[in-house]
Design a protein that fits this description.
The protein is mainly alpha-helical. It is built from 20 helices and no strands. This is DnaJ-class molecular chaperone with C-terminal Zn finger domain protein.
């Protein structure tokens, strides 16, 4: 077997071999190298496993197409080692170009299909892009190469958790901790999974383990996160005695920079950037960002209507009216999630509502500035289209609804928000 494992060379076939030829080649080589026929050959099992791996990839049209693309890109730069592409991938990650990182890690893997670190880094990049099915595929590849890889089990747990398979995620985190008992992040996210399953005692135990590991390592940020998480999960999380102007100022500053970061994500990619923006925050910060974005949208809406002077309502009434869609979207999301029995939290509902309504609020402000009708029509079309797509993306990725449930929930959000807004508006006018 060739050590670099070009799958075509492994099966001793040409690159234009048909599916039938792939199967025939595998069967012939499998009979020759089967471990049962070579009990005294210590490399027989590994050789047979490589044959099987090559057959699994080349016999599947989708996997074969992806493999061919990776092979072509890698061979377009002859003489370059896999490590070069790996380093390029790291550089892309540092620049937050996760799609570019996926490409570079893929080239490294095409040159060396046993490059476990490249697989793991690509898992992380896929995770940042919200492509959890790809994360699971790479985790499976890593575990075939290195069955006791704690990081692969951790990424598997994160992907399953985001897809809504919480019990399966707990199993993956537990396996990671069996392999590496001091894996701090596995404790933290297993705690979150336990909490979503209403196993509060188990969640608290995991977060305490996480806090202790962070303390021993001098990880102040991690230790602070653990303490805050434990405080939120306690039966009486609100402690008035702990309030201070300094803590309020810190929270405001933190929320400001979080909002700026989220706006950068959404500015680059309004649809694909939604999940990475959300998963980059913990529950507390995501909730604050959602409320902050909703407040900005509300102020823009009220200002736009006030500038236009089209309705005879006070500023307070306008602000109240602008808050109705926020409550409608967040409430509908929470109800849909509850009916579908999907794991999640109110912070995801609030974050989604704020992110979707911000461009709507800006549209209201633009309307108050008396922009040309043609321009307003174009802006309205863009905002409406992006709003629907963002709602659908948020329902499937953040709220964890199925595509079918999301397709029903999105129009319901519009109906509920519109009806409630009209009812409140009519009531205000009547008084």
């Amino acid at each position: 077997m060739p050590k670099h494992r070009d799958y075509y060379e492994v099966l001793e076939i040409s690159r234009d071999a048909s599916a039938q030829e792939v199967k025939q080649a595998f069967r012939a080589l499998a009979r020759r190298h089967h471990p049962d026929l070579q009990p005294d050959n210590p490399t027989a099992a590994e050789t047979f496993r490589v044959l099987r791996e090559a057959y699994d990839v080349l016999s599947d049209d989708v996997q074969r197409y992806q493999y061919n693309r990776q092979l072509e890109r890698a061979q377009a730069t002859p003489g370059v080692s896999p490590q070069v592409f790996y380093v390029r991938g790291i550089e892309k990650v540092l620049m937050r170009d996760y799609a570019g990182a996926v490409e570079e890690f893929g080239r490294a893997i095409a040159l060396n299909p046993r490059f476990v670190e490249a697989f793991l880094r690509r898992c992380d990049a896929y995770s940042q892009l919200g492509q959890d099915s790809k994360v699971l595929e790479d985790c499976q590849q890593v575990l075939q190469l290195q069955p006791e890889c704690a990081q692969a089990y951790f990424f598997r747990g994160r992907a399953r958790q985001r897809l809504g398979y919480i019990e399966s995620a707990v199993q993956a985190y537990s396996k990671a901790l069996m392999v590496q008992a001091d894996y701090a992040q596995a404790f933290y996210y297993r705690g979150i999974a336990h909490y979503e399953l209403k196993n509060r005692a188990s969640a608290v135990n995991d977060w305490r383990e996480y806090a202790e590991l962070c303390r021993l390592r001098g990880d102040e940020a991690g230790y602070k996160l653990a303490i805050e998480t434990l405080a939120r999960a306690s039966w009486l999380p609100l402690r008035l005695g702990s309030f201070s102007i300094r803590s309020l100022a810190i929270s405001v500053r933190e929320s400001y920079w979080d909002i700026v970061g989220v706006l950068r994500h959404l500015g680059r990619d309004p649809i694909g950037g939604l999940l990475p923006a959300y998963t980059g925050l913990n529950d507390r910060r995501a909730g604050r960002v959602g409320i902050g974005l909703g407040a900005i949208a509300d102020l823009c809406f009220a200002s736009g209507i006030g500038l236009g002077q089209s309705w005879e309502l006070s500023l307070l009434q306008l602000l109240l009216l602008g808050a109705i869609p926020f409550a409608g979207i967040a409430g509908t999301s929470a109800i849909a999630r509850s009916l579908a029995r999907q794991a999640g939290s109110w912070t995801g509902d609030v974050f989604l509502a704020g992110a979707v309504l911000l461009p709507v609020g800006l549209l209201g402000l633009a309307n108050g500035l008396a922009l040309p009708n043609a321009l307003m029509l174009i802006l309205t079309a863009f905002v409406g289209s992006y709003g629907v797509l963002m709602l659908y993306s948020g329902c499937t990725q953040i709220t964890n609804l199925s595509e079918r449930a999301a397709a029903l929930t999105v129009p319901l959000m519009g109906i509920v928000s519109g009806f409630c807004s009209y009812f409140v508006f009519a009531t205000m006018h009547a008084t």
